[in-house]
Design brief:
The structure is a single chain. The chain has 295 residues and is an all-alpha fold. The chain has one domain. 75% of the residues lie in helices and 0% in strands. The protein contains 11 helices and no strands. The termini are far apart.
């Protein structure tokens, strides 16, 4: 029994780390624009397809190290470009026209849902609904170690980006006051596009690791992982980078421990119960901070 619990914890850490990589994209965009980018889950799905084609093109099982690294970087670049395209096509025009309107926050939310559905259908049109498996580059136990180390490394690098670079300073200025940041010379459009690109690249990393570990690729795969990643971001404190990591790990561990019980089919029910409990005690999430907003 102890061995099963230890195995579930290890698997939960790997699963939670992948969820955290996707949750980081939600939390970055929300931290700056106060927007829940529901299309982010479909960027995750597209990143999984990009990774599959990249790994296959660079050799797959015949050259696992080269294929894994090069395929992941290719997926990151393509997903980052897709994230910037989504922002430029769907959200930038709304920001330009929506200042001062009563529905300035509701319209981007509906647009995000519409973009999510459009990307799902585009994937079905381009790639068909067939399930596709990733080549096995590493034994599963090594893959999960790589997943956890990669997720922690990415979170540390992201923290350094946000708190130690000029780009990060611009992101933090936008999250405080967009108009003031613009008056201080921050190129808001470029910074927002960069935020979408970074978040989408993180989703691509999570997608490749997720499919190498336990899943096939298909056009609707982003729905479940995207929902769990959003819940992880809220539990940890949406807008907080360490909070997204903490929330992802908690969801992963809770889900795997639930599988050891007779109620394994109630995994998502338990996750949402934890979400409600956290919000009742701490409405801003475990590591979130309450803010003051002028209305």
């Amino acid at each position: 029994m102890v061995q099963e619990i230890v195995g579930a914890l290890v698997t939960g850490l790997a699963q939670g780390s992948m969820i955290a990589l996707v949750a980081l994209g939600y939390t970055m965009v929300y931290g700056i624009l106060k927007l829940i980018n529901f299309a982010h889950s479909e960027v995750f799905m597209m990143g999984a397809f990009f990774g599959l084609f990249g790994i296959t093109m660079f050799g797959g099982e015949h050259a696992p190290l080269v294929a894994g690294v090069a395929g992941t970087f290719a997926a990151m670049v393509l997903a980052g470009g897709l994230g910037m395209l989504v922002e430029r096509v769907a959200y930038a025009p709304l920001r330009a026209r929506g200042r001062g309107l009563a529905n300035a926050r509701n319209t981007p939310l509906v647009t995000a849902l519409g973009m999510s559905v459009m990307l799902q259908n585009l994937a079905q049109l381009l790639f068909t609904a067939r399930y596709r498996g990733y080549p096995q580059l590493l034994p599963i136990e090594h893959t999960r170690k790589v997943i956890f180390v990669t997720a922690v490394t990415v979170m540390i690098l992201l923290q350094l980006l946000v708190h130690r670079t000029w780009t990060g300073k611009a992101m933090r200025a936008l999250s405080t006051n967009v108009e003031a940041a613009r008056l201080m010379g921050v190129r808001t459009g470029r910074t927002i596009a960069m935020t979408f690109a970074v978040g989408s690249m993180l989703a691509a990393v999570g997608a490749v690791l997720y499919c190498l570990d336990q899943s096939q690729v298909y056009p609707t795969m982003g729905v479940v992982i995207g929902t769990r990643a959003f819940v992880a971001a809220v539990i940890g404190g949406i807008g907080s980078i360490p909070g997204a990591m903490l929330g992802g790990v908690l969801i992963g561990v809770i889900g795997e421990l639930t599988k050891l019980t007779p109620y394994s089919g109630l995994q998502d029910v338990l996750v949402f119960t934890v979400l409600i409990g956290v919000l009742l005690v701490r409405p801003t999430g475990l590591l979130g901070r309450a803010g003051v907003e002028k209305v």
